[in-house]
Amino acid sequence: MLGINVASDTEADARKFVAQYKAPYPVGRDAAGEIAQRYALQRVPTTLLINRDGTLFGRADEEMTEDEFTKYIDALLQQYKQK
To answer: 55 with 76: CB under 8 angstroms?
Structure first.
């Protein structure tokens, strides 16, 4: 899991968010907007599940509950178990 801070947020705002919510995962910055453009991000938050080859497995263009997130992760992992 990896968090990405989008170009429209400042680095200071991103650091504040990570500290406030104690993000248990690394958070990078998309200062140039390349990731946002590649995956056509329209709003924040957006959750992307990306396969090992960089293709999009799933997305949610809104906040997700823990149960929703778990279902996505389980489906993604199941895909690799079947191979």
So the answer is: no
